[in-house]
Each structure stands twice: as structure tokens, then as C-alpha cells.
Amino acid sequence: MSSLAQPLAESVVQSVDWLAIAPPTIAAVVGLVVLVVDLFVGDAKKALLGWLSVAGLAASTLMLLPLLDGDRSTFCLTGDANVCSYTADRFTLVIQFLVLGGALLAALLSVTALKDANRELPEGEFWFLLLSSAAGAALLPASRDMATLIVALEVASLPAFALVGIKRGDRKSSEAALKFFLSSVTATAVSLMGVSFVYASTGTLYLTEIANEIQNVDGQLHTLAQAGVVLTLVGFAFKTAAVPFHFWVPDTYVGAPLPVAAYLSVVGKAVGFSGLILVTVIALPSYADVWGPALAALAALTMTIGNVGALRQQSTRAYSAVRLLAWSSVGQAGYLLVPIAAAAYSQDAEKAIGSTVAYALMYAAVNLGAFAVAALVARTKPLNRISDYRGLYASRPLSALILGFFLLCLAGLPPGIIGLFAKVTVFSAAVDAGLGWLAVVMAVNVVIALFYYLQWTTLLFRAPEGEPEKHRVPAPLTAAIALTAVLGVALSGAPQLVLRFSDTGLF
User: Fold this and answer.
1) Bridge-partner residues for 385, per DSSP?
2) What angle do CA 331, 332, 336 make, to 5 degrees?
3) Would you state the pLDDT for residue 81?
4) Is 416 helix (H, G, I), strand (E, B) or coil?
5) Which domain holds residue 456?
6) For the segment 17-43, what is each residue's pLDDT rounded down to a tens digit?
7) Cα angle: 445, vertex 450, 456; to 5 degrees
8) Can you name a GO cellular component term (predicted)?
9) Is-contact 294 227, C-beta < 8 A?
10) Rounded to two decimals, what is the model's pTM?
11) In the predicted structure, residue 10 carries a pLDDT above the cut 60
12) Which of 13, 38, 48, 309 has its CA 20 to 30 A from that of 210?
């Protein structure tokens, strides 16, 4: 009996490539450690939890380096090593770098924010939720089957709901978390229905297997497969804040703690776009005639409505800077969708996807930097209104110059060369794919966006109202601003490095 059981066990039990799964695993383990340590440390030592979390995210990011020597896969089908649930290829590593790097910068902002909150925010729970969400976000780009993809998406999203509503007794925070939760749960339910339809049509959950099987779907199941494709895309469109699934963004960003809003603006988008890329380009290339036009229309709507919404955020006391950044992030999501739509029509889909990844890297660096300067202003102006930035150059000349540089990058104007370079690559992807009308829509939206970015930039250098306020800037906040500024300036000096780094190797 034992002789029969041994071969059976060997066929079922798989070896795990621990190095391949190290980045998300370290983030998850450190999150659990932080939660346990929180039970045993007093209030005076709660700050250690923050630095432990920062160290954990830094270690997760550094663990990407040993993976650069070649693709690695694990959790593969027995008897078929090419069909796996987890793959650490070039695309995975680039997105994991974006996600973990973004989470690390958000953690630096959070160290200062939690200290300023004077125990209004529960530190142990905050760090556990942030690390858990980062672990899920790092897992998603490596997922190569629908089940793992959905689980990773929810692991990234569920802690984010709690982070948005973590302010005790804050009505805006609770309302923002509820909106975020209800709309996200609805999108997840729609995605799960879509995945179930695709599984019913193909009989598999593995992305590469779906790509093969869905081309030979029986005629009676063809409509079911098409419905599954559309419903699956709807769920990921919500995560990217694409119109009309964007309505939760402004209130959520304003109601959440500012570092959480910064985290959602970058890491949340990376999760949505990486999932969208995996589903469309790897699993459903034969349905490009379905998702290509849909994503092109979504891109046009998203960038237009996002920029028009941001345009309404005038320099008055009625609107906050965070709300303007929220609408701006919706507009930027439209630009990010353009190359994915272009991949459906392009002869070189890998180049098109590389354009999205390159734009995402640029956006992550400068948008996190803008949020870091917003966190600096919020230390003395808690409402963080647009008008509060008037005369920032008089009190904080370096911070004003850095914020102005970030805004010019987002607008795509010199000296923000990296922003201009990223927009040109996206524009080229649309033109090369024959989507001339989408390129025209993008050009119009770039002009619209110039108004509100330049309006905010000029406000920084106007004469201040009253005496300029000066105060000491905490080291973590200084580090976050400095890191993003150095990265933005360095990439503007050598923008080709972004495109080289973002070579995804998906195909």
C-alpha cells in the first residue's frame, strides 16, 4: 500500500520556488509580525511598528534583484511545467517594483501622518492593513490563472477599504470607505460572474490555456464566452477608475488619510492595469475585436471626464488639492488605457503594453511626489485647499519648485521631460495601431489638462496672503519628497531608461 501511496504523493505535492514568491511573501509575513508585536509594545514605542513596516517593504523590493537573471515559475500543473499559477517574468518584476516602491513611499508618508494624528489612528492595524494590501498587489502581476488573479485582487482591495475608513469618528472617512466598499464589491461580483462564464466556456482557469481553448468554443457557448469577457473587463475597469466606474474616486481620496489616498492613486491603479493587461493580452487575444473597441471608448471617456472634472477645481476655498489630484488621476487613467486598447490593433502588442508600463512608472513617481508635498502643506493647513498653496515659494522655495516640477511632468511640459516622453510614447502607440481618432482625443485632453496644472503651478509663486509659515519637516516626509524628486529629475535627464526598463517580455 505504501509503495502506491508514494508515487501518488509525489505527483500531488509540488515544490515551491520560495525565491520567486519572496517579494509578496515578505510583505505578508512582516504584516503579521507587526500585528503581533503591536500587542506587546506600549504607546511610547508604537513608532517602531512604522519603521519595521518600512524595512519590510524595502526588503520586499530588494528581493526583486535576485529574480532579474531569468523567468521563474511555481505552482505549475502536474505534468505540464509551462502552465503555472505564479510566474516571475519581466512584466511581473516591473509591476512589483512599481507596487512595492509605491507602498514604501506611502509608508514614509504614513510614519509622519500617524505621529501627527496623536493616536487618533490605530498604528498596529494601520500597518498590518497597508502591508497586507501591498502583498496582494505584488501577487497580482505574477498571477497566471483566474482564481489567483481574483484572490490577489481582493487581498489588495479589502484592506484598502479599512484603510480609507480608519479615521476614528470621522464622518467623511466612514462615508468614503462605504462608497469604496459597495462599488468595489459590486465590481468584484460582476468579475466573478464573468470568470465563471469564461470557465464554463473553456473548462480551465489558466490564462494561457484559456487563450487556446476560447478560440475553439462550441457555437452554443460563444455568446456565453463573449458575455464572460465583457463582465470580467468591467471588474478591472472599476479598479482602474475608468469612466463610468470612477464615481468613488473623489470622495474616497478626500475622506481617506492622505497617505492612503496617495497609495490608492498609484498602487490601486497598478493593480487594476496589470490585471487588465493579463486578462486581455494573455488570456483573451482572440477576442481583441471585443475588448479593443471597448477599451478605446473607455480611454476616450475616462480622460475627457477626468480632465473636465479636474478643470472645475478652481483656486477657491470650495475645493481641496486632494480632490483635484483625484480627478487628475481619473484623467491619467484614460491615458494609461490607450496603449492597452492599441494592443488589440497593433502588430507589436508588446511595444504597446510597454508604453502603458512606462507611463505608469512616470505617473507613480511624480504623483506620489505631489501627494508628499500635499502632506507637507497639510501639516499647517489641514483642509489642504488649492488656495492654501498660494505663495508656497515664499515659505518653502524648494518644496514649491519640486511640486511645480511634478505638476509640469503630469502636464507633459518641459522641464518635466519624463512626462512629455511618456505622453509621446502613449500617443505613438495609438497612432501606430491606427487609432488616429483616439490620438486626437488625447491631444485635446492634454491641452485641457494644461490649464489646471499650470493654474496650480502659477499659484505657488504668487505673493502669499499674510506672513509665510515655516516649520520643521519630519525626516520621513523629507525622504519621500527627496526620493520622488531625484527620481523625476533623473528620469527627465535620461527618459529612455523608462522605456528600456518597462520592456515587459510578456510574449
Assistant:
1) 320
2) 125
3) 65
4) coil
5) 284-507
6) 788 899 999 999 999 999 998 888 877
7) 135
8) plasma membrane
9) no
10) 0.90
11) no
12) 13
Report yes or no on 447 lying in a domain. yes
Q: Tens of pLDDT along 374-386?
A: 988 888 887 788 8
Residue type at 427?
A: F
Looking at the DSSP assignment, which residues form a beta bridge with residue 73? 87
CA distances from 226 to 65, 171, 233, 292 (A): 40, 42, 11, 13
Q: How does residue 80 score in pLDDT terms, banded at 50, 70 and 90?
A: low
Report the 10 Å Cβ neighbour count for 354.
Answer: 27
pLDDT, tens digit (0-9, with 9 covering 90-100), for 345-394: 877 777 788 888 888 888 888 999 999 999 888 888 877 888 888 888 88
Q: Is residue 268 assigned to a domain? A: no
Do residues 364 and 287 touch, judged by C-beta distance below 8 A?
no
Residue 30, pLDDT score: 94
> Which position has the grid cell 511573501?
25
Other Cβ atoms within 10 Å of 35 Cβ, number: 17
CA-to-CA dists, residue 484 to 113, 165, 406, angstroms: 18, 27, 9
Query: Could you count the other beta carbons within 10 Å of the beta carbon of residue 222?
Result: 12
Confidence at residue 437, expressed as pLDDT on a 0 to 100 scale: 92
Return the number of other C-beta atoms located less than 10 Å from residue 292's C-beta.
20
Across the range 304-322, mean pLDDT stands at 76
Nearest to 75 by CA among 122, 116, 20, 125: 20
CB atoms inside a 10 Å sphere around CB 228? 25
Does 504 reside within a domain? yes
DSSP3 helix / strand / coil % (the chain, rounded to 5): 75, 5, 20
Instruction: Report how far residue 210's alpha carbon sits from residue 213's, in angstroms, rounded to the nearest whole number.
Output: 5
Question: Is position 441 within any domain?
Answer: yes
- AA letter at 187: A
CB 266 within 8 A of CB 363: yes
pLDDT classification of 466: cutoffs 50, 70, 90: low
